[in-house]
Amino acid sequence: MSEPERDETPETEPEGEEVPRNPFDNPLFLPVLLFGLALWFGYDGWINQDPKMLEHLAFNRYGFGFLVVAFVWSAIRARAELRAAAEAKKTQ
Q: pLDDT > 70: what percent of the chain?
């Protein structure tokens, strides 16, 4: 005997119930993470005077610049995503 074929589509939630959101799905997660990393790299690149860290000075300074650019880019995208979600919520 063969097993009956199952529909491979995921089950939908009953109308009116929202699925709990994962914190990593928040549009602001990546910008906050990148901002924290940029602060860390900036501290190690310009403020920290530990002789062990001076070996990695160029890496920290370039990393800081890259992370600041990535932060700004992701913050702009997150803001646009939040605005789109707010507009979609208004139209419902």
A: 82
Q: What distance in Å separates the CA atoms of residue 67 and residue 82, rounded to the nearest whole number?
A: 22
**What CA–CA distance (Å, rounded) separates 18 from 85?**
15
How far is it, in rounded angstroms, from Cα 30 to Cα 76? 11
For 59, the token pair is 């890496």
pTM beyond cutoff 0.90:
no
Could you give phi then psi for residue 5, rounded to 5 degrees? Answer: -70, 135
- The structure tokens listed for 85 are 């979600």
Higher pLDDT, 1 or 83: 83
CA separation for the pair 50, 4 (Å, rounded): 67
Q: Which 3 state secondary structure label does DSSP give 70?
A: helix
